[in-house]
Amino acid sequence: MNGAIRAKEVRVVAPDGEQIGVKKINEALWLAEQLDLDLVEVAPNAKPPVCRLMDYGRYKYEQSVKQREARKKQTRTTIKELRMRVRIGEHDFEITSRKAQEFLESQDKVKVTIRFRGRERERPEFGRDLMSRLAEEVAEYGTIEQAPKIEGGSMTMVLAPVRRSKSSQSEDNEEQPDE
């Protein structure tokens, strides 16, 4: 940029993209100074190097605004964990499935963990049955991303939210009555 450009001659491009031509570096810097702009090297490997007349501070600001907008549009996936036991009560299972449904509706992944203790480890099919039952309960809101697998004394399964199109989400919002 400006005085840091080491080439003797440069191809100068106007702010609107129009070619000005090949100029000596002193001439190009004088032209930039007259227009109250910066001379920025955009293609240093070209013969001769290409430099553009631009307001570099404004350019950097616009780039940072674009990056901020891109970050706003990004979605962060979070993983919520729910823990259960093999001998879970019916009411407790309903609460767990309701929680899993809420997490999936808010577009979070759900990691379901079942802990085995003592003799429960000898019958992992009970845990698998419980996992599949939970997956069926919340099938409308999420799908199995990682099938149930045993790791040490516990079994884990990951449920991912069902991706819905924007039009169906807006229809859901319209159907809900205002209070």
What would your notes on this structure say?
With 179 residues, the chain is an alpha/beta fold. It has two domains: 6-55, Translation initiation factor 3 (IF-3), N-terminal domain (Ubiquitin-like (UB roll)), CATH 3.10.20.80; 79-163, 2-Layer Sandwich (Translation Initiation Factor IF3). It has helices at 25-34, 56-73, 90-105, 124-137, 166-175, and strands at 9-13, 19-24, 38-43, 50-54, 79-85, 109-115, 142-151, 154-161. The strands form two sheets. A four-stranded mixed sheet has the order 2-1-4-3. It has a four-stranded mixed sheet with strand order 5-6-8-7, with helices on one face. A hairpin with a 2-residue loop joins strand 7 (142-151) and strand 8 (154-161).
Q: What is the total number of structural domains?
A: 2
From the alpha-carbon coordinates, what is the Rg to the nearest angstrom?
A: 30 Å
What is the percent of helical residues?
25-40%
- What's the CATH architecture of the largest domain? 2-Layer Sandwich
Computed structural class: alpha/beta
The helix tally amounts to: 5
What share of residues are in beta strands?
A: 25-35%
Spans where pLDDT lies below 50 across 5 or more residues: none
CATH top level of the largest domain is Alpha Beta
Distance between the termini: 59 Å
Biggest β-sheet strands, sense, barrel: 4 strands, mixed
Mean pLDDT: 84
The total of beta strands comes to: 8
